[in-house]
Write a structure and sequence with these properties.
Order of helices and strands: HH
Oligomer: single chain
Structural class: mainly alpha
Strand content: under 5%
Distance between the termini: 140 Å
Shape: rod-shaped
């Protein structure tokens, strides 16, 4: 089959031209990837700095220096306090009036 004379001519691409074009595209993509890698690295450093700042702020806000009452640490020593009270009671002399219970008044109606 023969093409008409007025048909446009399609040139076959030169293999060396195609190779140069592909190499150019690869270099562009590698440059873009390198820029994105730098951006990712910078963002990771910024994230690490912000996380450290957040940790320090939490420590400043909630750390031990934020407690106003110095005796606040003793609030939850109930068990130790009970043990100390029991020891103090057993150490007292048995003949002291503190150990003898006071006689209780019986309840009832008051006389008219």
């Amino acid at each position: 089959m023969k093409l008409p004379d007025n048909a446009p001519q399609i040139d076959q691409p030169n293999p060396s031209d195609c190779l140069e074009e592909v190499n150019g595209l690869l270099q562009e993509k590698e440059a873009i990837i390198a820029k994105k890698d730098q951006l990712i690295e910078a963002q990771q450093k910024r994230i690490a700095i912000l996380e450290e700042y957040l940790r320090l702020e939490r420590y400043r806000r909630l750390g031990p220096s934020s407690e106003k009452n110095t005796a606040q640490g003793e609030l939850f020593d109930e068990a130790e306090q009970l043990v100390q009270q029991a020891e103090e009671e057993t150490e007292g002399e048995p003949g002291t009036p503190e150990d003898k219970p006071k006689p209780k008044k019986r309840g009832g109606r008051k006389p008219l």
